[in-house]
Amino acid sequence: MNVELLRIFGNPHIGVYVFVNNSIAIVPPGLDEEVRNKIIETLDVEVIETKIAGSILNGVLIAGNDHGLIFPRTILDEEFEYLKKNLSRYGFNLYIARSKNTALGNLLLTNNKACIVGSDIEKQEIIKISEVLGVEVFSRDVMYLTIPGSLAVVTDNGGVIHPDVSDEELEELKNIFKVYIERATVNSGIPFIKSGLIANNKGILIGENTTGPEMLRIRRGFQSMG
Q: I need a surface site. Which of 38, 78, 146, 190 has the fewest CB within 10 A?
C-alpha cells in the first residue's frame, strides 16, 4: 500500500484540489513536478490537468468512480470538451449535473459499490447519477449534514470518516459501501476527512499536517489495501 504525505500549492488541504479514481487524477494546472509525480506514483494514475468552472477546486466540484464522472452545471464548454477528448479511451460515463448545487464532491460519497447523496441533491438527479456511476444511490444525510462527500473518503477496500459519526450511522455506511470504515481526522484534528485525503484502491495521499496517530487510523481504515 502506497501512503504519502503531500502539499498542493503549499497547502495541506489536498483533497479540495484533486479528483481521483483508479485510472486518472484530475488536477489543477500548474502543479510542481514533484507533486505531480507523487500523485502519479502513489496512486498509479494518469494525471489530467484542467480547471473546472474556471476554478482549481477540482476535488470539491467533481464526483465519480471508475464507471463515471459527474461535473457541475457551471463547467465551461471548453473544459468539458477537453475532458471528453482526454478521457475517451477510458470509457467513463461523463455527465453534467443539472442540480443547482455545484460542490458535487462534497455532496456525493461513492465507491464502485454504492453512492450516498445528501438531501440537497434533487430527486430527478438521483436516477441519472445511478446510471452514470453504475451503482445504487442512497439519498440520506450523515450526522444531519447534507455533505457526506466532505465527511468521508471510501474506496473499494475501506474508508475513513468524521470522528463524531454515531455507531448506528457508521454500521449503516459499512453495510452500504461493503467495506470497513474507521473514524479519523486529518491535518492535526480536522474532522472533514475529504479536505485532507485523496485515495483510490492503490494508494493514499494525506495532507502534510497529519500526525502519526492520525496516519495510523487512516491506514487502519484502508486496511484491506495491498
A: 78
